[in-house]
């Protein structure tokens, strides 16, 4: 549940952040489009008035400006607030200043800016902090109209910075609120999860005694009256039930404890080799061709009993489902920060089998995972939990003619003062 809570909080944080940043960007782009539209209207107005910005009386008397009059708000102050300059290039490529209404710019600088646009293919655009328009005149000359947009660009950037800051603050606020509320919302689910785990533990303990009695009675009957089909079935199934109960208890304990006690300097290569050797007879009985490649002297801080159990479960799983006369490939290697145990076995896997579900409790694929093999569908769940407790994972993948399980565990787990690993 802690992982679920952290995941929900992360989703809330990144969702809010993305939404607010998207809104900030939309606001920024909207302001940019509006400002460009406004400045383009002003440069068009200057082009219609022979390179000068008109006073209000001149603006009202302009011919061919009805469209502009609808698009622009013009006042007595508009003429005095316009910061622009116009450079003319005649048919002889001579540049001259028509209007220079920018105090911070010299005539030579203005002409230089116009010359830099001599090869431009765009009639409107930005050059430095100026919005420009290039207009061809009737005498084959060109007007280069520049409108100073320094204040507008500064305003645009200020709005962007403020909106991003506000977005971050609101994201943090929403995340904080969600963090507080998530604990309350998930509390009933946490309680239900605890009750389920407690039920599994209690039921498993309660089942152990009657199973032991049944098995003992069946064995007594076999001793007194001789073994028969019915007593053999009773002993076999009670043994199978005992194994399932043990696996359920193991899985429940690991989920409840969460943290894993580590043993220092465990030689994982030796554990893998011993596990494979102890089960090799099972593969030989099926005439399986095997190839084992275990890198020597791989040492790490792990829980010794759990790693033994994980190797055993994966190898036993391969022994149960490998096809007669099939193939087995096992390897153990260290790569960077991880240790990888890879086991392939030829198997009949249904085309529609969901390999990810192989790690669900009691899941079976119809063609390859049935009760006749002796399994009860919990072993891979236990192995997966062990791998995750050691900072790793187990994945199942189809390969030609069979299936391959790859288990990874972290090779860099640190032992703390209370003999727990630092992080899961």
Keyphrases for this structure?
alpha+beta, 5-stranded antiparallel beta sheet, 5-stranded mixed beta sheet, Heat Shock Protein 90, 424 residues, 10 helices, 19% strand, 2 domains, 12 strands
Protein described:
There is one protein chain. The chain is of the alpha+beta class. The protein folds into 2 domains: 154 residues; 151 residues, Histidine kinase-like ATPase, C-terminal domain (Heat Shock Protein 90, 2-Layer Sandwich). Helices cover 53% and strands 19% of the residues. It has 10 helices and 12 strands. A hairpin with a 5-residue loop joins β4 and β5. The longest helix has 76 residues. It is elongated.
Topology (SSEs and partners):
Elements: H1 2-48, H2 56-61, H3 66-71, H4 78-81, E1 84-89, E2 95-100, H5 107-115, E3 124-127, E4 130-136, E5 142-148, H6 150-225, H7 229-257, E6 263-267, H8 268-284, E7 289-294, E8 299-302, H9 304-321, E9 327-335, E10 338-346, H10 379-389, E11 393-399, E12 402-410
Parallel strand pairs: 7-9
Antiparallel strand pairs: 1-2, 1-5, 3-4, 4-5, 6-8, 9-10, 10-12, 11-12
Helix pairs in contact: 1-6, 6-7, 7-10, 8-9, 9-10
């Amino acid at each position: 549940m802690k992982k679920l809570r952290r995941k929900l909080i992360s989703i809330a944080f990144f969702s809010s952040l993305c939404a607010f940043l998207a809104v900030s960007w939309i606001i920024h782009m909207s302001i940019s489009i509006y400002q460009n539209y406004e400045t383009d209207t002003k440069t068009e107005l200057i082009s219609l008035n022979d390179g000068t910005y008109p006073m209000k009386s001149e603006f009202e008397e302009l011919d061919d400006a009805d469209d502009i009059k609808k698009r622009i708000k013009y006042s007595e102050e508009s003429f005095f607030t316009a910061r622009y300059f116009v450079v003319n290039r005649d048919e002889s490529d001579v540049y001259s200043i028509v209007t220079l209404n920018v105090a911070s710019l010299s005539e030579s600088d203005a002409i230089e800016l116009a010359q830099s646009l001599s090869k431009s293919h765009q009639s409107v655009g930005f050059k430095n902090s100026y919005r420009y328009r290039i207009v061809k005149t009737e005498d084959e000359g060109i007007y280069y109209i520049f409108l100073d947009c320094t204040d507008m660009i500064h305003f645009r950037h200020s709005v962007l910075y403020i909106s991003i800051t506000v977005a971050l603050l609101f994201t943090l606020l929403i995340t904080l609120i969600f963090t507080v509320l998530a604990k309350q919302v998930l509390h009933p689910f946490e309680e239900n999860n605890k009750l389920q785990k407690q039920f599994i533990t209690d039921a498993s303990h309660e089942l152990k005694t009657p199973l032991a009695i049944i098995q003992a009675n069946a064995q007594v009957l076999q001793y007194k009256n001789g073994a028969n089909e019915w007593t053999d079935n009773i002993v076999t199934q009670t043994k199978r039930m005992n194994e399932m109960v043990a696996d359920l208890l193991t899985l429940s304990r690991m989920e409840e404890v969460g943290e894993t006690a580590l043993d220092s300097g465990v030689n994982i290569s030796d554990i893998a080799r011993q596990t494979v050797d102890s089960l090799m007879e099972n593969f030989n009985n099926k005439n399986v061709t095997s190839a084992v490649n275990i890198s020597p002297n791989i040492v790490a801080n792990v829980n010794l009993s759990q790693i033994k159990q994980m190797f055993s479960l994966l190898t036993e799983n391969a022994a149960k489902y490998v096809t007669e006369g099939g193939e087995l490939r096992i390897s153990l290697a260290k790569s960077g920060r991880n240790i990888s145990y890879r086991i392939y076995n030829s198997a009949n896997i249904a085309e529609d089998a969901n390999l990810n579900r192989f790690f669900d409790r009691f899941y079976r694929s119809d063609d390859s995972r049935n009760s006749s093999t002796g399994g009860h569908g919990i072993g891979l769940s236990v192995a997966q939990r062990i791998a995750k407790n050691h900072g790793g994972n187990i994945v199942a993948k189809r390969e030609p003619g069979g299936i391959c399980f790859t288990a990874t565990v972290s090779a860099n787990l640190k032992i703390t003062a209370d003999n727990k690993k630092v992080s899961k």
